[in-house]
Protein: ATP synthase subunit a
Organism: Comamonas thiooxydans
Amino acid sequence: MAADAHAPTASEYIVHHLQHLQNIKQKSVIDFSVINYDSIVVAGVLGLLGIFVLWLAARKATSGVPGRFQAAVEILVEMVDNQAKANIHNAQSRKFIAPLALTVFVWIFLMNAMDMLPVDLLPYLWQGATADEHAYLRVVPTADLSTTLGLSFAVLVLCLFYSVKIKGMGGWAHELVTAPFGTSKNPVFALILGVVNLLMQVIEYVAKTVSHGMRLFGNMYAGELVFMLIALMGGAAAMSLSGVLLPVGHIIAGSIWAIFHILVITLQAFIFMMLTLIYLGQAHEAH
């Protein structure tokens, strides 16, 4: 069976699926005027879905024997609360940070879980709705670096806020120029150490923020690519009789990777939540 003359090549297929629905065509690798509408809309819808699920659990909560849904949510809430207590020793701060950690875990889990949908399902429906075969749509917000770095930057802002709130502006400023190498009674050495300490603090904040976002992005981006490669196995079978065994491999590989990926999407949500708690806990501690 001959291949369709208009069928995309493997590289064209992957490049198409890696394009965002954007306001303008991106002119460079870093272009702050570009808005990825698909990431914003999908993340917003999933955020509302997460709020609805937790609200539903709270509304149906009973002091009697809980149902399966309530029990599952209670286990999740208790797990997050225990982690918050282990990292945030300020009870007043936990009133905000513990619900924040729960929100982070649920929201990122839902965004990661979009990777479990068939690769071509939503893009195909979007193309049909827009009557444009070249319409772009990416449905995994956490495979978008702007999403993950946006989340990690929000954590950085909270860390700075709690550093000032707990230690005071003067205490935090003093920490910036005295940690991690301390200071000296000699004015010259004190100045040199102050500059070095400040540079180390800035590097630490930047490194934590970038690695926090890049870790989640890298894992979800790689998972998305694997699903695309597996999808190509099924497409190759449609173009050649010699590929009749590829659909079998497509199903087997897809099933194995999907089962494994359930662990990945859960673990990545948990890791991001834990790092959020750890960084906020460090903001409460004096060096």
Observations:
- The chain is about 70% helix and 0% strand.
- The helical segments are 10-17, 37-59, 68-87, 91-113, 121-130, 145-178, 187-237, 246-284.
- Residues 10-284 form one domain.
